[in-house]
Amino acid sequence: MPTNTKDRVSILTARRDLKMAGSAHAYVRGSTVQFYEWLVAEHGTVVPSGPPVWICGDCHLGNLGPIADVKGRVEIAIRDLDQTVIGNPAHDLIRLGLSLAMAVRGSDLPGVTTALALEQIIEGYSSALAADRFEDFGKIPKPIRQILKQAYKREWRHLAEERIENVKPSIPLGEKFWKLAAAEQRAIRDLFDDPEVRRMVTSLKSRKDDAKIHVVDAAYWMKGCSSLGRLRYAILVRVGKKHASDLSIIDIKQATKVAAPQTPNAGMPRNNAARVVEGATKLSPALGERMLATKLLGREVFLRELLPQDLKLEFDQLSCGDAVAAGRYLASVVGKAHGRQMSPADRKTWRAALNRQHTKGVDVPSWLWRSVVDLVATHESAYLDHCRQYALTRTTIASK
Q: Is there a contact between 177 and 221 (Cβ–Cβ < 8 Å)?
């Protein structure tokens, strides 16, 4: 359980490399920089330019899922906004298309399924842009409906068992949670004396504004590939008086310089944590309204209270029908997030631009088809190189 940055980075790098070697789909989720490099290289030659709006910037399947608002209502929305920028909305469609294509390949489905799924991505996204009211569109596909039902049934104990593996008021140290350095412990306890942080915590569940907040426990959180080199903490807090209190888990995450291509002179906040919170407010209001940008140990961080209903979409195996339906539905969610930021005229113009250059036989615009096919080939090759390098590294270590 390392407490210094150097040791943490070493362990996190090894975990990231192992996770990305697990499957081509996992590699795509963890190799966002490669995706952005491709976008920069191809920008202006293949991808149409839409009206500049806040976009997710990293719109893969795992970054969408059920989100609860401060009143407990649940919807499927974009749930991870680390790379959010004001940029080209087409980039989110390409990232979603790539992620779905890799999930299709991981489910050993025929290539025609990818073509049909990409066709429905455009259909679902366009239907959201054409709507007068931004609501959920069409029937929710079975695998997504199951996750949504699960989210509605979840309670605090489910969140505690999943996140901290313990319903008792403590965070068990081990593989996921590491002991904090003394300076980190002091900084976190001081942070929760900040009036703005207190307001964020008391804003949920109709808590009293003057409710007492006590930090019960805190730990460094080893979570996913995004933890590499960043501050990431899980904080267990008690809100209210002892006999009329409830427990909450606060996620603190460092915001870093964005890698996603952005519209020049777009007027985004210079503070990266503020950028993430503003993007969340525009794209997923239910999430943005319970987030806060601040500083911790001299670094830009954002906070949010984790709710039991917050889940990511995980597809182990997809049928052809599920993949096609998921493409349409999730694209409509993204279209809803983009469209609410556009004027009716901009939405109409953008829909027309999206549907130009259809491929023969299947109604997929050639820019989307070419982009996803190119990216699949690029990432498949890079994935195999990563696996080879990982195997060589492990062999070298084992021989010592």
A: yes
